[in-house]
Structure formats: C-alpha cells, structure tokens
C-alpha cells in the first residue's frame, strides 16, 4: 500500500528525520509514538505527500511520488490519502453532509454517486441524524466522526491521523478508537496514527517510536 525508504528531512542544522523506512498494508493500523518535537508530524506530512523529504523514496499504491507535478500530486493525494487532525478543520458554513462531500467534488465525481456515498458514510459512522447540522451544532465526538467520514469519502488507500483523539474526552476518544477498528475490519482501511494516547497506541497492530530522527519498533 505504502512504502517509504530512507526518508531524510532537515530544517537548517536540525536533522528531524534521519533515514526512516516505513511500510503499511491494507487493513493495518500503525501507531507512531514519541516525545513532543521528535518529528512525528513531519513524518506524517511527508508520508501524506503534504511536505517533501530532502532525500528518500515514497511509493503509494504502486505509484512513485517522485517527479509528479503539483497539480498531479494534489489530485493523487485527494484520491488516495485521507487526513484526520486533532482539530477537525471542518468548514463552519457547510453542513456535516456537505463537509463530507468536499473531497468528492474536488475529485470531479458525479452528484448521484457523491450523494449515495455520503449517505453510506453517515450510516456507517452513525451520524445520519446530524447530516444537516453545521459543525458548531455538533458535539466534539460528532465533529471528529464527520472529519473521519470526510477523510474516507474517496475511498483512500490510507488515512493519516495526527492526534485524532487529542481534543476529545475519554468516552469520545474510546468511541473514536473503536471506530478505527471497525473501519479496519469492515472496509480494510489502513491507518497511520500519531498519538500520545496509550489506549489508542495499544490497539494498533504495530507501534513505532520516533526518537533521535529514527523510527524503532515497539512491542
Ligand atoms: P512532533 O510532531 O513529534 O511533535 P514535529 O514534526 O512537529 O514533531 O517537529 C519536529 C522538529 O522539527 C521540531 O523541533 C520542530 O520545531 C521542527 N520543525 C517542524 N517543522 C518545521 C519547519 N517548517 N521549519 C523549521 N523547523 C520545523
Ligand atoms: P503538531 O502540533 O501537529 O506537532 P505543530 O504545531 O508543531 O504541529 O506545527 C504546525 C505547523 O507549523 C506544521 O506545518 C509545522 O511544519 C510548522 N512548524 C512546526 N515547528 C516549526 C518551526 N520551528 N518553524 C517553522 N514551522 C514550524
């Protein structure tokens, strides 16, 4: 699904990523843990094609990212990669259903196809009765589920989540974690999750620790 080899990233004198290898397959959840400032977000941004590595190779869905122009890359990203952040980043003027649909419009999909897909996700994520609400009218847990639905709308191969439960209380965090497991089991969804949450890290299939520019396997 995704393979990264020897990823290096420096900011001036600071080597944030010092030769990272990383792979993930369909239906896998991988957690990345480590101290603040270790480079977890930087790695996530590079693996998600939001940011360039200085050197290294990134292959997603058998497609090498190298040499793709900006427009091609952003189309590829919109189709193949979903993102969930600590703060949901939903557009306040749009309803839940409209927010979920945005990446599908960007991908140029047909209206009927989009409507059906949004409906399926609202059901799957148990937010059907919130479809016409705007983000401010939703609870924190509901907002985050809408953000997850938006990340899934184009059936991406992989979803990157940066502290997805960092802004939720423990009940909503637990529900979100269960939702990730359900999406892995039912859709075969792959997730790479940066988290400080021990329970979330524990339910991943594999854990990696980011430290001193390197990524190590954790039991
Ligand atoms: P983490 O997500 O593990 O907290 P980050 O990836 O956010 O770590 O940051 C790793 C290090 O890289 C930090 O020291 C941060 O200040 C630095 N850093 C991140 N982005 C930039 C940037 N655009 N320019 C300069 N330094 C950066
Ligand atoms: P996170 O909380 O997810 O680790 P940050 O708040 O560290 O994210 O970073 C937010 C944005 O600011 C990122 O795009 C990152 O690349 C950038 N950034 C982080 N640290 C620095 C820095 N020291 N100099 C410039 N940009 C930075």
UniProtKB/TrEMBL annotation:
Domain ABC transporter span(s) in chain numbering: 2-219
Protein name, per record: ABC transporter ATP-binding protein
Cellular component, GO, one term: membrane protein complex
PROSITE patterns with a match to the protein in the record: ABC_TRANSPORTER_1, ABC_TRANSPORTER_2
UniProt-listed PANTHER family: ABC TRANSPORTER ATP-BINDING PROTEIN MG467-RELATED, LIPOPROTEIN-RELEASING SYSTEM ATP-BINDING PROTEIN LOLD
Annotated keywords: ATP-binding, Nucleotide-binding, Translocase, Transport
One GO MF term attached to the UniProt entry: ATP binding
Keyword Hydrolase set for record: no
Family recorded in the similarity comment: Belongs to the ABC transporter superfamily. Macrolide exporter (TC 3.A.1.122) family.
């Amino acid at each position: 699904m995704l393979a990264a080899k020897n990823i290096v990233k420096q900011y001036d004198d600071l080597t944030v990523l010092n030769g990272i290898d990383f792979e993930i397959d369909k239906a896998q959840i991988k957690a990345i843990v480590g101290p603040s400032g270790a480079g977890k977000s930087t790695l996530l941004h590079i693996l998600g094609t939001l940011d360039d590595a200085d050197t290294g190779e990134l292959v997603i869905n058998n497609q090498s990212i190298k040499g793709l122009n900006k427009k091609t890359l952003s189309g590829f990203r919109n189709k193949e990669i979903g993102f969930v952040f600590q703060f949901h980043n939903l557009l306040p003027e749009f309803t839940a259903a409209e927010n979920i649909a945005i990446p599908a419009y960007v991908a140029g999909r047909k209206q009927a196809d989009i409507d059906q897909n949004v409906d399926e996700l609202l059901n799957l994520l148990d937010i059907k009765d919130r479809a016409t609400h705007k983000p401010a009218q939703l609870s924190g847990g509901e907002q985050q589920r809408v953000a997850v639905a938006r990340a899934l709308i184009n059936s991406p191969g992989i979803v990157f989540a940066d502290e997805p439960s960092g802004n939720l209380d423990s009940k909503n965090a637990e529900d979100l974690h269960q939702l990730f497991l359900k999406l892995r089991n039912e859709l075969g969804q792959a997730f790479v999750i940066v988290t400080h949450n021990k329970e979330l890290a524990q339910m991943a299939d594999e854990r990696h620790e980011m430290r001193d520019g390197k990524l190590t396997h954790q039991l």
